[in-house]
Write a structure and sequence with these properties.
Structural class: alpha/beta
Shape: flat
Number of helices: 14
CATH topology of the domain at 9-15 and 300-382: Ubiquitin-like (UB roll)
CATH class of the domain at 9-15 and 300-382: Alpha Beta
Number of strands: 12
Helix content: 40-55%
Radius of gyration: 24 Å
Bound molecules: guanosine-5'-triphosphate, magnesium ion
Strand content: 15-25%
CATH architecture of the domain at 9-15 and 300-382: Roll
């Protein structure tokens, strides 16, 4: 069958939407404002302040606002715009030593281990009507305590894995011994560093070591960001608090915001919200910043497709080759991939049309080894 460009009516018949594999998990101590942030991020209506150890996590989706979509939709006269999405989970977590829990429960660990990145909500707001599980407001203690929990969880996984590999080594065939011995050496090294308080994400490991470890879904290996949840009376100190935590934890990206205010603002129209924001001294774009930083934390880049039917943003992990990116749009496009026609977003905007970009030689034809970049506008050609 002849090559068929994206946007061809026959394309409509294909099942367009594939599940997005990347997931950010909101974590943090009890009553830090996780569910409030979840609602602010996803427009969700999950009940806040309703922690129970049996509570299921909230699972939602955040659309990624991208001003490039509107520009491209105008250029390509698209009927509609479809933004990219990130999956967000709000996981309940009770800290070791608090009256309602002894560490992270196995259920929570299960959710955390499948997350690709962690957004840690750090309680900075003081409110006597919302008791802190450890009795006082102390962001540094909370961050360190959470880190300890992640470390304990990883040590338990590594110890179990080590026992299993050592056991298997006893009856291993000569051809399997070398790789199993190498795994034992790696696990012991990683465990030793972890015992010296070096999280796996900060350990110096080869990409092969990281590939081996990836299967264990270790928590301190996951990228993490700190979200300082400040009270609405402290908004004028937002950047000071952010700076303080950034200095204390240079390995983490730190953002400060008032999750409750951001959630409440969703109920107002944009004019009222802007007025309220100004009155409260709350900088605009706090949630957008959380979203864009989450994309970065997840290691995602955005490419775009255009057509008269729709202009759409898609996210893929950095380093994704063109055929796999095509597979995000539809699995048939990956299977029958021929080539990709790529224009840089900025070039397309400057040319004003695909036709003009083609004329000026700014449309590149790329093969299966092409690595997709953020802002690529792509037309995949494929065989069915
Ligand atoms: N004063 C104040 N209260 C807040 C703020 N953010 C959240 N809260 C309140 O803190 C309480 C807990 O908020 P949640 O969002 O449920 O916190 P959580 O971390 O999900 O709590 P658990 O699920 O119980 O662990 C609620 O009563 C919120 O209204 C804030 O910025 N200021
Ligand atoms: Mg909650």
């Amino acid at each position: 069958m002849a090559a068929r460009p994206v946007g061809d009516p026959a394309h409509e018949m294909l099942q367009l939407k594939l599940p997005l594999p990347m997931k950010a998990a909101i974590v943090g101590l009890r009553h830090s404002g996780k569910t409030t942030l979840f609602n602010a991020l996803t427009g969700g209506l999950a009940e806040v302040g309703s922690y129970s150890s049996a509570l299921r996590p909230n699972i939602g989706v955040r659309k990624v606002d991208d001003p490039r979509l509107e520009v491209l939709a105008r250029i390509s006269h698209s009927a509609r715009m479809v933004p990219a999405e990130i999956n967000v989970t709000d996981v309940n977590y009770a800290p070791r030593g608090s009256h309602d829990g002894g560490g992270i429960s196995a259920e929570v660990l299960g959710y955390l281990s499948t997350a690709d990145a962690l957004l840690q909500v750090v309680r900075c707001f003081a409110d006597p009507s919302v008791p802190h599980p450890l009795g006082s407001i102390d962001p540094v203690r909370d961050i360190d305590s959470f880190d300890l929990e992640l470390t304990f969880a990883d040590l338990a996984v590594l110890e179990r894995r080590l026992l299993r590999v050592q056991d298997r080594l006893k009856s291993a065939k000569p051809s399997e011994r070398a790789s199993q011995q190498a795994e034992v050496v790696l696990l012991e090294r990683v465990k030793g560093e972890l015992e010296r308080d070096v999280p796996i994400r900060s350990q110096s490991l080869s990409s092969e070591d990281r590939r081996t470890l990836a299967g264990y879904q270790l928590l301190t290996a996951k990228p993490m960001m700190l979200l300082a949840n400040i009270g609405d009376t402290e908004l004028d100190r937002a950047s000071e608090i952010e700076q303080h935590l950034s200095n204390r934890y240079p390995c983490f990206r730190v953002l400060s915001l008032c999750a409750r205010l951001e959630m409440e603002l969703l109920e107002l129209n944009s004019e009222e919200a802007a007025e309220y924001r100004e009155a409260m001294n709350a900088a605009p774009g706090a949630i957008d910043k959380v979203v864009s930083e989450s994309l970065r934390l997840l290691g995602l880049v955005t490419f775009l497709t255009i057509g008269s039917d729709e202009t759409r943003a898609w996210t893929v992990p950095q380093g994704t080759p063109a055929p796999q990116a095509a597979g995000r749009v539809h699995s048939d496009m990956e299977k029958g991939f021929i080539r990709a026609e790529v224009i840089r977003y900025e070039d397309l905007v400057e040319c004003g049309s695909e036709h003009e970009a083609r004329k000026r030689g700014l449309l590149r034809v790329e093969g299966k080894d092409y690595i997709v970049h953020d802002g690529d506008v792509i037309n995949f050609l494929f065989n069915l």
